[in-house]
Amino acid sequence: MEVHHHPQVERKSFKEYLLEGLMIFIAVTMGFFAETIREGINEHNHARVFAASMVKDLQEDTAELGPYITYFTYAVHNTDTLMQLLAAADPKDIPSGKLYWYGLWGGARRYFVPNDATFEQMKNSGALNFFEKETAASVAKYARLCRLMEDNVENNREIYTEVRKCRAQLFDFRYNDVANNVSIANRSHFDQARIDRFIASNPPVLSYDKALFNEYVEMVRSRFMNISIVDAKALLEQATKLIRELKSTYNLEDD
Fold first, then answer.
1. Considering only Cβ atoms within 10 Å of each terminal Cβ, which end of the chain, N or C, has fewer?
2. What is the dihedral of CA 214, 215, 217, 221, to 10 degrees?
3. Is it the case that residue 126 has pLDDT exceeding 80?
């Protein structure tokens, strides 16, 4: 009978097993690090694209906020002048052109709508997490300030309607329309002579009732237009800061 001899299998030492395990561990760890680095690079690249788009949005916002602030600052100046006129004299003793011009601004209205397409896209997709922590916080602050302005507009909606109703009892809409056209023309090219000509025309006033003028002024005061200016200035400051931050963080200076 033929006898089969089993070959002897050389057993590995403990050190060899330890070395193999260490090599496997290193390979897995390096793979993990490589994947993490790759994801980090991809996220940074995505963040840079979003940052460039957001900078464009913010630049459009700042271009709108400047005229917005100028408009309401001028409106507040003119309503203050109306109050000073009425505090110093009876309405019937004030030239009607002045009453029309300065009274017009109690109904001042201008909207600011933020260019938030990039922000909304990032928020809805979760891409805000791609931004650096400090940058994301700055973006969130800008969004809060935008909501604050929107809330102020909404809170003023009812009183604005009442102001217009009260104004309609004092001033003929035809001459109000003329004054408004002067205001619109002055936005592109300010001309004090144009205003002076309207004031000198002394259009007829519907009522010189002192109590009604007092009611109108109180309604105008309730609009708190100064708050619109303060909110817009805070938003402009934050937008300017965020533009600098995005450009610096994502090297967009030359883009």
1. N
2. 130
3. yes
pLDDT given at position 92: 96
Q: 204: phi > 0 → left, psi -120 to 50 → alpha, else beta; which? A: beta
Q: How far apart are CA 92 and CA 198, in angstroms?
A: 18
Domain chopping of the chain, boundaries: 14-249
Render pLDDT for 1-22 as a digit per residue (tens, 0 to 9).
455 555 554 565 656 656 666 6
Closest to 251 measured CA to CA, from 106, 52, 71, 46: 52
Q: What are the angstrom distances between the C-alpha of 250 and each of 61, 139, 231, 240, 246?
A: 20, 14, 28, 16, 6
Question: What would the DSSP string read from start to end of 51-82?
Answer: HHHHHHHHHHHHHHHHHHHHHHHHHHHHHHHH
